[in-house]
Amino acid sequence: MDFKSLKFTQKQVEAYTSVRRLLRLQVAEFFGLDPETLQHDMTFFSHINGSKTARTLHDEYWHSHIDTEQYGTFAFTTLLYLNSQDEDFHGGEFVFEAHGTSSAAAVEPRAGRVVAFSSDAENPHKVLKVTKGIRMALTAAFTCSTEKALSIEAFPKPSLVASG
């Protein structure tokens, strides 16, 4: 995001930090883990519009992928939808691919909806193409490895936080 020269207010940083903390607690509760064992991993906002096309095999949306393979550190992934399908955009369903004995399942994006899943081979997934509008979500991942957590660059960088 450096190239966009975004500056975040302290209030925005506090809201972001609070959301990440609450997602961590939800993941711990859902998977029966001690929250202290979950370390923050990468967190990013996705902003997908209808004009985006997959350019490489590693485009993180339209090809089926496994987050642990895609990113290398994720143990658990959460998605917090920031807007709603059919109100703000069309398409963009999150699809868990059929795997083993499970069948494919799609999640309809709705503002405020949280999706949480383990990030390894048991949950291959993709996002269907957005055909109109802009789909926005916050992806927050967690790891159980302190070493992996320490390898993740902090966000936002102090240089991106507006003073005052």
Automatic annotation (TrEMBL):
User: What GO molecular function annotations does the UniProt record carry, in alphabetical order?
Assistant: dioxygenase activity; iron ion binding; L-ascorbic acid binding; oxidoreductase activity, acting on paired donors, with incorporation or reduction of molecular oxygen
Name of the protein in its database record: Fe2OG dioxygenase domain-containing protein
Query: What is its cofactor?
Result: L-ascorbate
TM stretches of this protein: none
Key words, A-Z: Dioxygenase, Iron, Metal-binding, Oxidoreductase
Instruction: Note the Pfam families from the entry.
Output: 2OG-FeII_Oxy_3
GO CC annotation = membrane
Is Ribonucleoprotein among the key words of this record?
no
Give every Fe2OG dioxygenase domain span: 39-145
